[in-house]
Design a protein that fits this description.
The protein has ten helices and no strands. By secondary structure, the protein is an all-alpha fold. It has one domain. The two termini are about 55 Å apart.
Length: about 270
C-alpha cells in the first residue's frame, strides 16, 4: 500500500522541528559557557579562565530580562515552525479532493469537505465558495469569491502575524536591554573612580565586565530573533499565497468543466482555404 505524501511528511517535519530545537538550545548553551578570550595571569599562580556563564551570573539582575527574552525567542521560533507547515495550510490530500469535486462541478460537496478540515485552505474554501454563483455562466461569480477570500485572509492572518511579530519586538528590545546594562556598568566604573581617585583595575573589572556581558548578550538574542522574524514571515506569506493559488485553480477547474464545449469551440481543428 502506497502511503500518501501527507502521512510521509508529518514524521519528517516533527523530526526536523525537534532537531532544530535541540541545535538552537545547544547553540545558546555553548555561547553562554564558552571560555573568555582574556585571562589574568599571576606570577606564581595558574592561569584562571572565566567562562561567559560566570560573567552572566556576575551580571546579576541585569541579565534576567535578557535571559527571559532568549527563552521567549526560542519559544516563538519553535511554535511558529510547528504552525507554519504545509499540512496546516494547504495539505495535498485536501487539495486533491477539492479539485476532484470542482472538476465535476460538485461545489456543495467541496464546501462540505472543506468545512470538515481545520487547515487554512479548508477554512478559506468553506468561507469563500458559498459565494459561487451557478446562475452567472460568465464567471460563476468569481469576483464575489475573490472578495470572500480577501476578507478571510485579513481576519485570519492576524494571529500568525502577531506571533511572528513578537520575534521582531524581541530583536529590537534585546540590544536596548543590553545597552541599559552597559550604561549601568560604566556608571558604576566611573563612580568607583570618582570615589577612590586611582582605583585598582581589579575593582573596575566587575563594572566593565557587566557592561561588556550585557551588550554581547543583547546582540546574541537580537541577531537570531531578527533572522527568524524575516524567515518565518516570508514562509507565512508563501504559504498564504499558495492557498490563494489553490482557490484560483479550483475556480478555473469548475469553469473549464462547465464550459468545456464553448472552450473547445474556440479551438480550430484546421483552416479552410
Amino acid at each position: 500500500m502506497i502511503q500518501s505524501p501527507l502521512k510521509l511528511r508529518q514524521p519528517f517535519l516533527s523530526k526536523n522541528i525537534l532537531l532544530f530545537t535541540a541545535l538552537l538550545a545547544f547553540l545558546f548553551v555553548f555561547i553562554y559557557s564558552a571560555p573568555e578570550l582574556l585571562a589574568q595571569e599571576a606570577a606564581d599562580e595558574e592561569v584562571k579562565k572565566q567562562t561567559m556563564l560566570d560573567n552572566v551570573l556576575d551580571a546579576g539582575l541585569w541579565m534576567v530580562p535578557l535571559v527571559l527574552a532568549s527563552v521567549a525567542m526560542i519559544g516563538f521560533v519553535v511554535y511558529n515552525f510547528i504552525e507554519l507547515n504545509q499540512n496546516k495550510f494547504n495539505p495535498v490530500e485536501l487539495k486533491a479532493g477539492l479539485l476532484d469535486h470542482m472538476q465535476n462541478v460538485r461545489v456543495r460537496s467541496a464546501i462540505e469537505m472543506a468545512s470538515g478540515h481545520p487547515s487554512y485552505l479548508g477554512r478559506m474554501v468553506a468561507a469563500s465558495l458559498p459565494q459561487f454563483d451557478a446562475t452567472n455562466t460568465e464567471d460563476f461569480g468569481r469576483e464575489d469569491v475573490d472578495d470572500a477570500v480577501a476578507e478571510f485572509t485579513i481576519s485570519n492572518n492576524k494571529r500568525y502575524l502577531t506571533n511572528i511579530g513578537y520575534l521582531g519586538v524581541i530583536g529590537q528590545i534585546a540590544p536596548m536591554l543590553g545597552l541599559l546594562g552597559t550604561v549601568v556598568g560604566m556608571m558604576g566604573a566611573f563612580n568607583t573612580l570618582a570615589a577612590e581617585g586611582q582605583a585598582d583595575p581589579s575593582t573596575l573589572a566587575g563594572d566593565i565586565g557587566l557592561a561588556m556581558v550585557t551588550t554581547a548578550s543583547g546582540l546574541i538574542v537580537a541577531i537570531p530573533s531578527i533572522f527568524f522574524f524575516f524567515f518565518q514571515r516570508n514562509r507565512f506569506n508563501r504559504l498564504v499565497a499558495d492557498c490563494h493559488q489553490d482557490v484560483s485553480e479550483l475556480l478555473d477547474a469548475s469553469y473549464e468543466a462547465a464550459n468545456a464545449d464553448q472552450i473547445m469551440a474556440k479551438v480550430p481543428e484546421g483552416f479552410q482555404a
